[in-house]
């Protein structure tokens, strides 16, 4: 099957969705890899009103912009609603997600199948760098709250705001 001219020139877009409260090196690794594979990568900070975050959505966006600025093809936005609607409104056919371990798989598969059933959007799973296979924003916040060293787990910009927000015990 030959590709039409418009298919050949089409911008390839993907989205990396999440809560990013705050962004970690694990998230950043997945975003950086997606940015190599796609022309435009959206980072979607999905708003969940029932979940009180440590950082306000605008703060999360600001941090993500600071640490992804060097890639040049990454856009950061927040969204309140279904991820498939975010994708539809921006003509994004693919969701890129990191898989840390088998334990992530069950829920991620459910979401991928639901999203595909709702709108046809595809989900591509990227195996997390083993260095970050245990990493989550929640664990980073917990360790940092008790004065543990998380400097190797988050970008420097995130480390400094974490230190301000979570005074040492
Ligand atoms: O970083 P998280 O909290 O693990 O990310 C989960 C997230 C935000 C990607 C997921 O909850 C999501 O897509 N929420 C948006 C609402 C939605 O589309 N729900 C249906 C998922 S099938």
TrEMBL record:
Organism: Streptomyces carminius
Assembly information from the UniProt record: Homohexamer.
Cytidyltransferase-like domain residues: 15-142
Binding site for substrate: 19, 51, 83, 97
Site (Transition state stabilizer): 27
Ligand binding (ATP): 19-20, 27, 98-100, 108, 132-138
GO biological process, one term: coenzyme A biosynthetic process
Full protein name: Phosphopantetheine adenylyltransferase
EC number: 2.7.7.3
Cellular component terms (Gene Ontology): cytoplasm
Catalysis performed (reactions): (R)-4'-phosphopantetheine + ATP + H(+) = 3'-dephospho-CoA + diphosphate
């Amino acid at each position: 099957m030959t590709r039409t001219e418009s298919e050949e020139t089409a911008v390839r877009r993907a989205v990396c969705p999440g809560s990013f409260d705050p962004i970690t090196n694990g998230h950043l690794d997945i975003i950086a890899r997606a940015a190599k594979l796609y022309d435009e990568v959206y980072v979607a900070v999905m708003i969940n009103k029932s979940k009180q975050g440590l950082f306000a959505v605008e703060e999360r966006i600001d941090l993500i912009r600071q640490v992804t600025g060097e890639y040049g093809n990454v856009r950061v936005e927040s969204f309140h609603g279904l991820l498939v609607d975010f994708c539809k409104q921006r003509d994004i056919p693919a969701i890129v997600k990191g898989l840390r371990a088998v334990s992530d798989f069950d829920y991620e598969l459910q979401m991928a199948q639901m999203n595909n059933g709702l709108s046809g959007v595809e989900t591509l799973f990227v195996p997390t760098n083993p260095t970050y296979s245990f990493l989550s924003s929640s664990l980073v916040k917990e360790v940092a709250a008790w004065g543990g060293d998380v400097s190797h787990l988050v970008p420097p910009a995130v480390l400094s705001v974490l230190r301000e927000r979570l005074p040492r015990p």
